[in-house]
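ENTRY TYPE: paired fold submission
RECORD: A
CONTENT: sequence, then structure tokens
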Amino acid sequence: MKALGTHIVCELSGCDAAALTDVDAVRDMMIGAANASRATIMEVAFHRFEPQGVSGVVVLAESHISIHTWPEMGYAAMDFYTCGDHTDPWLACEHAAKVLDAKVMQTTEVKRGIAQPSGTFTHAVTRDHETVALSA
């Protein structure tokens, strides 16, 4: 199946609460994740909420990665979407889980931009609800 991009929806549970509320640490982790996936960073935007939580996006030449954190729950919701053959969003996902000290990673992979004979595009779920317990 030929697709324009791979989109990984990632739920990270049991993360380090301090890391999830530190906007600079989250920004650094996301830049590291983009670099790990061999993507080209175009723009970076992050916001820290009061009393806690961070949202941010790294815009890539190949698409984007984003995060929303709930430190009080040890939870991060992330998207890793890259296009082209030279990037690997799974490397970004694994980097994020490691840096945030996640205990469980649940992912769904979607192939996007699949051309149809009608001239429209669709997507297909290729790995659904894969749950991995990470080392403590």
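RECORD: B
CONTENT: sequence, then structure tokens
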Amino acid sequence: MSTYNDILKNLRKTGILDLMEYRKLSRKEIDTLGDDIRYWCSYENGKLEKLGKERKGK
């Protein structure tokens, strides 16, 4: 999942999702990234450093 981790790191750093990199992800990684972004938007107040961190409820 190095591409996934690179995308997540870049997203935390810049706040920008590179769609060309996104296309390289597997279906499972896309689903996971979508879940992380939805959780981050709903519960982490949009703080970039909290994107993709382990959830308290998991």
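NOTES ON RECORD B: The mean pLDDT is 81. DSSP finds three helices and no strands in the chain.
STATUS: closed
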